[in-house]
Design a protein that fits this description.
Elements: E1 12-15, E2 23-28, H1 39-53, E3 58-63, H2 68-80, E4 84-89, H3 98-105, E5 108-113, H4 115-118, H5 121-127, E6 131-134, H6 141-147, E7 162-167, H7 171-179, E8 185-190, H8 198-203, E9 214-217, H9 230-243, H10 252-264, E10 273-278
Parallel strand pairs: 2-10, 3-4, 3-6, 4-5, 7-8, 7-10, 8-9
Antiparallel strand pairs: 1-2
Helix pairs in contact: 1-2, 1-6, 2-3, 6-7
Length: about 300
């Protein structure tokens, strides 16, 4: 496994919320590694181990042109000396995103697939029987198993009433829910618009006894996946100035905005203690023009 993974540098950052009688702490998973960032390492680790143990010819996975997962998989495979193929949603662009350029530089073979073909991943997988396929975003019980270990990094887990994170595939949310304590509510903030199948897909990974601990909120997508409004950019800059907390516009900024907005609407009872899981993914901010963000 990549030996640069730095779980020892992960810390909990308290956030002072003036005029709100709640405690908000941020689990800084973004500090684990600059590329295999945040939750990506936890979701990938057991897939990578299976591929190594099975002596496959290589690893393949799926994602978009700005996918944190694609870049993390490329880096991990390159470090481990494993051949890696990324099946990228959409036709080959005239100009590669920085994410794709970095993945290519890490020896990932890029295969561009039409959106229609991308939707039927089984056909792609059947065409490459020698490869070990990791689902998009690390989705699956294997990914959730790794994500469940995130809460082991929290020194006093029982102190929290609510655990909040961004949700894309729902894999991290499922893992966290499986590892949560019976008195805790786990809240996922969906970063996709109208992704109403997310509940079913996420609950498929949640253990039966934990299913009642989790809910997904769909009101903070800011237009859809990887979309944003100036309001969100201004929010990211404000949070940086006030708390020195870097957020990314695809996942964590939307989820953190949701926590503060919900707190302001008194969703959380007085004296609640909330743990926000910063899932990393800061590399996505590189798509902005220089100077857009203050960090």
């Amino acid at each position: 496994m990549p030996n640069e993974i730095r779980t020892g540098e992960i810390n909990i950052q308290p956030i002072l919320l003036k005029q709100l009688n709640i405690q908000l702490d941020v689990l800084r998973l973004d500090k684990i590694h600059p590329v295999v960032s945040g939750n990506k390492w936890f979701k990938l680790k057991y897939y990578l181990q299976q591929a190594i143990d099975g002596n496959y010819a290589g690893i393949a996975t799926f994602g978009g042109a700005f996918s944190n997962h694609i870049l993390a998989a490329a880096y991990a495979c390159n470090t481990l000396g494993i051949k890696c193929t990324g099946f990228i949603r959409g036709e080959m662009p005239q100009q590669y995103s920085q994410t794709l350029l970095d993945a290519q530089a890490l020896n990932m073979q890029l295969e561009f697939v039409s959106r229609a073909a991308f939707a039927d991943k089984d056909v792609i997988m059947q065409a490459y029987p020698g490869l070990f396929f990791i689902p998009e975003g690390g989705y699956g019980k294997i990914g959730a198993r790794g994500a469940a270990e995130i809460l082991q990094l929290v020194p006093d887990l029982s102190a929290y009433d609510h655990i909040v994170c961004a949700a894309g595939t729902g894999t991290m949310l499922a893992g966290i829910t499986n590892a949560a304590l019976p008195h805790q509510q786990c809240i996922g903030i969906s970063v996709l618009k109208n992704n109403l199948s997310l509940e079913k897909e996420m609950l498929a990974l949640v253990e039966k006894q934990a299913a009642g601990l989790v809910r997904i909120v769909h009101d903070y997508h800011f237009g859809g996946y990887a979309k944003y409004k100036q309001q969100l950019i201004d929010f990211m800059n404000t949070i940086w100035l006030e708390h020195i907390l870097p957020l990314d516009f695809v996942y964590t900024a939307k989820a953190f905005y949701a926590v503060l907005d919900m707190a302001g609407q008194h969703y959380f009872p007085n004296t609640s203690k909330i743990l926000f899981v910063h899932s990393g993914g800061l590399q996505g901010n590189r798509s902005f023009k220089k100077g857009t963000l203050l960090f």
